[in-house]
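Holo model, adenosine monophosphate. Inputs:
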Amino acid sequence: MDCHNAGLSVGMVPTMGALHAGHRSLIDRAVAENDRVVVTIFVNPAQFGPNEDFARYPRTMDADLAMLGAAGVHAAFVPSVETMYPPGLVTRLDIAGPLGSRLEGASRPGHFNGVALVVTKLLVAGLPHRAYFGQKDVQQCAVVCRLVRDLDIGVEIVVCPTIRDTDGLAISSRNRYLSPEDRVRATAIPSSLAMAIGRFEAGERDATALATTVRSCLENAGLDVEYVAVVRADDFTEVEKAAPTNQIVLAARIGSTRLIDVVRLGVDTAPVGGGV
Ligand code: AMP
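Output:
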């Protein structure tokens, strides 16, 4: 079916599969806002580092396709690695500057270049009117918004709110790696962000103080903190004085499981417990 010639709007939701309620929220929004929706499922080897979890990343294709059918999705695109990386491929994308090299970019060298190449290929292949991404991966959202602008890809990027479990933990495919005890300890992540939001709403504007609040809470729960930072939403530069729409971003490890989270100051409500 040629949707463009038929005058139908197309929404795309890129994923790595192992679909959960976070993905479902993007899919439901895409279905509500477009005549036709395609969901892509591709576990992209280039966005995993050599010591990361590519081999054990959850793959649940049958359940994923059942979920897409129930959600009213019109097409699933599940390319092979050979399709996305044809033999002889020499073209690379490089996300330069702080956006590509700081925080997630520093913790995961090459990650955003891998994301950028695959997202660009998916958008160019499908030429959707809109593509849907989750705020949880906020630096990825900024990278995708920037590359669409830089490469003049005429796709509207829609950033959707983070879906959380009842205890506040952002839903993630990687949560299934957590033991029951570690799953409880992981709630320090939303609690720490709730504390920082509480302090911001009480008037604290010192970015270091806010980040220290988060870091201490995570460390007290036994998490290994990779980074906590208060950043501008567009270019991910760190601020000294926190202001509304700045974001607190973090990455922490519980054993071998690495989780990330984010809240927008002055925008998001506390992810759990209403802050202190
Ligand atoms: P992934 O399969 O992890 O690459 O995620 C595919 C898309 O779903 C990305 O745009 C993610 O940001 C988004 N996503 C993942 N988890 C959540 C969540 N808990 N809430 C909202 N969006 C999410």
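The pocket of adenosine monophosphate is lined by residues 15-16, 22-23, 25-26, 133-134, 136-137, 160, 162-163, 170-173 (CB under 6 Å). The chain has a mean pLDDT of 95.
Archived with the compound record.
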